[in-house]
Design a protein that fits this description.
The chain has 228 residues and is α+β, with helices and mostly antiparallel strands. It contains 10 helices and 5 strands, in the order E-E-H-H-H-E-E-E-H-H-H-H-H-H-H.
Length: 228
């Protein structure tokens, strides 16, 4: 029995491991399900860029480089990952070096878990929790971050500072990434036009949607649809 199967029986905890080149070697069933994959054959050998938006994948790869160089270990850090609906949400992520028998670093292993309710009451979560909920719920509307800040009883500057501290990005970027991720699902699963997707995901128009999509994904929405 492979040890990673133990994680299939720990509720809410997901395991993964990659080699030095960033190719995925192992993943628990829970993580495969989050990526809508049926078994390991769809996962093994792929990289973060194969299964994540480029901006998110690059952040994961940058972390891996520091770990492989022996410069860092990540313990229970708040990060954006996919939730079961394909929308970015926060998870507590731990990444450690993967050693061979001669104690040489040969890869990266890690776990993800959803914060428990008690942990969500900690200040680091509470400062941005309501803003995240509003953005995740209302991203398809013409939402303004100033309105989100007011609804949270914070100034725009306070919300930006606290969001940056928790996630490493601004609330504006979180909103855009949420919209882009929602649009990716529509590109994959429907034949809606760019203008129709823009309207459903909160973009001003098809041109704005295409511009933001290309900037974060590196390709146009139409090219993404063909590639998928």
């Amino acid at each position: 029995m492979l040890f990673q199967r133990l994680f299939d029986h720990i509720p809410g905890v997901y395991f993964f491991a990659k080699d030095r080149a960033g190719h995925l070697m192992f993943a628990s069933q829970g993580l495969l399900q989050r990526y809508r994959m049926e078994d390991d054959s769809e996962f093994i050998g792929r990289t973060d860029f194969d299964i994540n938006p480029d901006t998110m994948a690059q952040a994961y790869v940058d972390d891996d480089k520091r770990i492989l160089a022996g410069k860092a270990e990540l313990i229970e850090r708040i990060e954006l990952w996919w939730d079961s609906q394909g929308i970015p949400d926060w998870f507590l992520v731990t990444k450690l070096p993967l050693y061979d028998r001669r104690h040489r670093v040969q890869g990266v292993m890690g776990t993800l878990r959803r914060p428990q309710e008690a942990e969500r009451q900690l200040p680091v979560f509470q400062t941005v929790a309501k803003a995240v909920d509003i953005i995740r719920r209302d991203y398809a509307s013409p939402l303004k971050i100033e309105e989100v800040a007011r609804a949270c009883g914070q100034s725009l500057r306070q919300l930006q500072r606290r969001f940056q501290s928790a996630f490493g990005i601004t609330p504006q970027e979180f909103l855009l990434r949420t919209r882009i991720l929602a649009s990716m699902r529509l590109l994959e699963e429907t034949r809606l036009t760019a203008s129709e997707i823009a309207s459903r995901c909160g973009f001003v128009d098809g041109s704005s949607f295409t511009q933001h999509f290309r900037r974060r994904m590196g390709i146009s929405p139409s090219a993404y649809r063909v590639r998928r």
